[in-house]
Design goal:
The chain has helices spanning 2-36, 41-60, 76-89, 95-98, 101-119, 124-135, 138-147, 151-166, 171-184, 192-201, 204-228, 230-238, 249-256, 261-268, 272-289, 294-308, 318-321, 323-327, 329-348, 357-382. With 413 residues, it is an all-alpha fold. α5 (101-119) runs antiparallel to α6 (124-135). The radius of gyration is 21 Å and the shape is globular. Residues 402-413 have a biased composition (Polar residues). InterPro entries: RgtA/B/C-like.
């Protein structure tokens, strides 16, 4: 038994090292792009935001008029990040390079995270494939290394919260990670109810620890802004509906189909909250049915949000790029291949917000690939028993309060 455990541990270490090398190569690739390519208009906008944050502070920034810049719709932690990056840039490092480091580093960590999630639910070979897929994903290389928004950071924290809660039995850290995810980008708020439901299914001690971790970080990061400029925060961040472009998904199909303008306006206005509520409800229901499959539930919820999104942005493809590998290797490969080409061609065009005809057709094909991947991934997730991982072994991913000793026969972590 001891020799078998040692061999399994050695195999996991070798597999983890392979993914680590791939993630390092991916990080280097993103860093070289960030250092040598100017990037889209968002890079300039972020630099303007950083200068405004340096002048007014990360709290008062929400009440400022910012001529020449779009609405500052980023949660409070992003302001502190921009303040730090602006300070580092004073040492002679280009801000255009710095703004793409957080997302690139998040991709590095996400590759390792996806490996750890998948290896508990499939073979090591599949886990290596999925982790490596995240590392070299053309979607993530384009959106993190070139675009440089904060979506990848938020997704990484959301998946980390699910992993910590379901696989590591660390509800306090999971709650903190969940709060950090919505403090960088508000998008992962759709997965917070699923995380709470899974914690509830784990028992009162798990729920209390998760809530404590979430509340502590939320109060620390959001508290000063809520106490100082609550209305400005609500208008800029909580009520932000995205742009009015019609390049992606349901809005694109509605536009091409010739639906009345009032319908499209409603979809992009108050109607988009209905799609958000649908994502929240689907995630919470899946978490209730399969709490041990929480990483897959979070991945599916973020993917569904992208599928139903009424806003268009190449950086939004990040929401599902890593998570599709959690749902399945083929789902992840198909999504990242088709929409990776979409992102590369989109960013290579005249503007990231002006999609050419080929990019529009690729985007439509990618939407269909995403829908099919979500369908097969969720079906596979539901095919497991509530306390069982997708490989058919029971008891490896049950939610429970942390224990001081590991039962015999459990997975090597």
């Amino acid at each position: 038994m001891g020799i078998r455990m040692w061999c399994e541990t050695w195999d996991v270490r070798r597999a983890r090292t392979a993914v680590l090398v791939a993630a390092a190569v991916g990080l280097l690739t993103r860093t070289l792009i960030a250092a040598n390519v100017p990037g889209p208009a968002d890079v300039r906008f972020f630099q303007g935001f950083a200068q405004a944050v340096a002048a007014h502070g990360p709290i008062r920034i929400y009440e400022q008029q910012l001529p020449g810049l779009p609405v500052y719709n980023h949660p409070p932690l992003a302001g502190w990040m921009l303040l730090g990056l602006n300070g580092i840039s004073e040492f002679g490092i280009s801000f255009a390079t710095l703004i793409r480091w957080p997302a690139s580093l998040a991709d590095f960590l996400c590759a390792l995270l996806v490996f750890e999630i998948v290896r508990r639910r499939a073979t090591l070979r599949t886990a290596v494939l999925c982790g490596t897929g995240v590392a070299i994903s053309p979607v993530l290389i384009a959106t993190s290394g070139y675009h440089g928004n904060t979506d990848a950071v938020a997704v990484m924290f959301a998946l980390a919260a699910a992993h910590l809660l379901a696989d590591r039995r660390s509800p306090l850290a999971a709650g903190a990670a969940a709060a950090l995810s919505i403090s960088v980008k508000f998008i992962p708020v759709v997965v917070v109810p699923a995380l709470l439901v899974a914690a509830l299914r784990g028992g009162r001690p798990v729920l209390v620890r998760f809530a404590a971790g979430f509340a502590a970080v939320f109060a620390l990061v959001w508290g000063p802004v809520l106490a100082t400029v609550p209305q400005d925060l609500q208008r800029n961040v909580l009520e932000y509906a995205g742009g009015s472009y019609r390049f992606w998904g349901l809005v694109r199909f509605a536009d091409v189909s010739g639906l009345p303008e009032s319908v499209i306006t409603f979809m992009q206005g108050g109607g988009h909250f209905l799609f958000v509520l649908l994502c929240v409800a689907a995630g919470a229901r899946l978490a209730w049915l399969r709490p041990a499959q929480l990483p897959g539930v979070v991945a599916a919820t973020l993917g569904l949000l992208l599928l139903l999104s009424t806003a268009s942005g190449l950086q939004y493809l990040t929401w599902a790029a890593a998570g599709m590998f959690v749902l399945g290797a083929w789902e992840g490969l198909a999504f990242n291949a088709v929409l990776g080409l979409t992102a590369v061609l989109g960013y290579s065009g005249r503007s990231a917000v002006r999609w050419s005809e080929p990019v529009l057709y690729l985007g439509a094909a990618g939407w269909i690939v995403l829908a099919a991947g979500l369908a097969t991934g969720v079906h596979r997730l539901l095919a497991t028993w509530p306390g069982e991982d997708p490989s058919g072994r029971t008891g490896r991913a049950r939610l429970s309060a942390p224990r001081t000793s590991q039962p015999s026969g459990s997975a090597v972590t």
